[in-house]
Amino acid sequence: MDRMKNPLLQTLLVAGALLACTEPEAPVTEGSENPVAESSSQVITSGLLAPGDTRDLILVAVDTLRADRLPFYGADRATGGKVEEKWSMAWLAANGTLWENTWSPAGMTLPSFTSLWTGKPPLEHGSIGNFLATDQTTFAMDLAQRGWIGHAVVANRVLGKNCGLDRGFLTHLVRSKQAEKSAPRELLVTTQKDIQERKRMFVWAHFMAPHQPYEPSAKHLGTFSTADGTQGDKETLVALHTNPETITEAVVQNVQALYDEEILTANDYVMEVLRGLEKQYQDAGRGELLDNAVVVFLSDHGEELLDRNGYSMHAKSIFSGTTHVPLMILGKEWMAGQRVEQGIALEDVLPMVLRGEEPEGEYFFSAYRQTYYMVRDARWSLVHNPSGNLLGPPEPPKSVKYAYPVVALYDRSVDPKELVDVSKAHPEVTRRLLDALRAWHDQLQMASEDPEEKMTAEEMALLEELGYAGSSEHEGESTLTPWHGSQWTP
Asked: Given this structure, which CATH class describes domain 366-487?
């Protein structure tokens, strides 16, 4: 079955090809009172692989960055920095095209980033968990074959040498969250010579600050949080999930405040690496960064932050807090200040940027392995647990339930956190989304049921310390095919 097309975007992208030679809107300047323009229906794109295009790809990713904690996605705190500070997240949002509804396929790092780099959902590329490496060809491998030079610094052990995503990169440095402060400088060492020699590059800068534990830099600690409030260390977060009755509004506020300070910490790293790259282009006599590259800013997934079940982390969840992620794209075809309401799946981002392909789909799908599913359209979200397993995912803390309803429907127009089930009030919508989920599942070209586990025992121990379940925890896990709409009764 062909993936579902969106005729509106198809029309817009054709129009974009015709308009690609026109000048973009002027960027927002210092002191602007309107940092992000009103929503626009016009999307201007062309692929970096088009004949005659010589620009580089700069991909900046902030791990565990939840969209709605950023002011340009509705947050009431200036977590994206100052709009007048060039290369801050706020500046990126104001000077590029911002996608309002970008959906990650999973609430975990390796499945999501593998979808980004392969253009496939996890059930097709095989990395359905953080311990399972893909053997699929990646965009990095394709670019390397075309003669591009790849450089990466990643600040998450999940993205280490055996994850399948290091392939294609000439340099691929792995740092821990605790050591990521040096990551911008280390990446810039690898790019300088290639920029001077005008070699075509693809660069992946990855930062992990918002991931638990929430330990913002000294520069930002106390900006929103209080020293005597609930802290963000792993033990405290596990205790809250284990004992949700202890959670008060004050607890929620301080945990979220620490997380928001971590976003500010990540913003510093983003600015440092992009400013450094721009200086390298300038020193090579090549002009500004955006004269030479397209910049893509995004995240792999978000964080629950105590929305439900006393759970603050992400691995157990495919609800909106973990799967609605930010996306901004900057380049000569990407209009400054434009906001695109049409949804896009994370796996469609690089095909759009590299090849100019239309983001496909009226529906957007997320899954926890092969057990729990979510389907969304422009307004509605439907979660489905076809096995009826009420224990939830076996992610740490394993002794605490995280129950998924068998079927539940949420109206994001009034319930963006997907908390109130309205399936009985809207049975026709519920059945339609179940049918869409089943149709999607039926047309998947499933990866091997037993993908190779390539990580060493030491690497797996490190991942478990980050709060992810090992493969043995999934033995005997319930898996069933999603229902047809007719199988559900209110």
From this structure: alpha beta
